[in-house]
Amino acid sequence: MNDESISSTLNKNTKNSWLLLIGIILVGSNLRVPLTSAGSLISFIRDDLGISNALIGSITTLPLLAFALLSPFAPKIANRVGMELTIALSILLIIGIAVRSLSGTPFLFAGTILIGLAIAIGNVLIPGIVKMNFPLKTGLMTGIYAIFMNLFGALGSGVSVPVSSIGNLGWRGALAIWGLLTLVSLLLWLPQLRKQKKREQEKVKTDKKIVYGAPRLHGRLPYLWVDNH
User: Fold this and answer.
1) CATH of 11-212, one of 1.20.120.530, 3.40.50.620, 3.30.990.10, 1.20.1250.20
2) CA–CA gap between residue 94 and residue 115 (Å, rounded)
C-alpha cells in the first residue's frame, strides 16, 4: 500500500468518525428536549384540552414508564437488527413529537408514549455505540454528547413558552417545531446505516470463505486427529 492510499484511508476514517460523532450528538440532543419542552407548556395544554391536573401530570410519567419497560429489551433488539439500525428506529419513534401535536387528547398521550419508547432505546444504546467506536476516548465522547443532551433539554424548557406565543403556533406548534431537530438527526444518521450494511456484507463474505475455503478430503472437511495416548 503506497503513501497515497494510506493517506486516503486515514482521511476517510477521520471523516467517518466526525460523521458518527455529529450523529451521536444530534441523537443525544433528542433525548431530553421532547420532555422538557412539554413540561414547560403543561398549563397551556391542560387549559386548552380541558383535562385534570392528574391526567396532564401523566405526560411526564409515561416516558419514565416506557423507559422502565423497554430498556431491558433494547440490547436484545440491537443484537438482532444491529445497533445503528435500532438507533435509527428510535429516531423514527420520535415522530411522536408530531403525533402529540395533533388535535385531541388521545394523540397527545399516544405521541408521548412513542417519545418515551424512543428515549428508552437511545438512553441505553448511545453509551454502547460510543464505547464501541471510541474505546480510547469513551469518557470524552460521553461527556460531549451529554453536554448537548442537557443543553437542548434546557433550550426546550426555556424557549417553548416564548415560541408558543409567536403568531398562531400555540403549544402544538411549539412542540412540533422540535421535529425539525429529529429530521436533521435522522438524515445525518443515514451514513451509519450504510456502514452497518457494509459491515454485515463483509461478515457474510468472511463466513463463506471460512466454510467453503477450507481444504476438503473426498468431499468432506478435514478433521483433527487427537492422540489420547
Assistant:
1) 1.20.1250.20
2) 5
Candidates 85, 86, 95; CA nearest to 34 is: 95
Closest among 115, 152, 148 to 130, alpha carbons compared: 148
**Grid coordinates 487427537 are at which residue?**
226
Determine phi and psi for 226, rounding to 5 degrees.
-110, 120
pTM here is 0.78
CB 9 within 8 A of CB 2: no
What gap in Å lies between CA 154 and CA 115, rounded to an integer?
A: 18
Give the helix/strand (H/E) hosting 187: helix 179-212
SS3 82: coil
Structural element, H or E, at residue 7: helix 3-29
DSSP assignment of 13-80: HHHHHHHHHHHHHHHHHTTTHHHHHHHTTHHHHHHHHT--HHHHHHHHHHHHHHHHHHGGGHHHHHHH
How many CA atoms are closer than 13 Å to the CA of 217, on its beta-carbon side? 4
Place of cell 406565543: 165
3-state SS track over 89-136: HHHHHCCHHHHCCCCCHHHHHHHHHHHHHHHHHHHHHHHHHHHHHCCC
Task: Encode pLDDT of 116-174 as tens digits.
Answer: 999 999 999 999 999 988 998 999 999 998 999 999 999 999 999 999 999 888 999 99
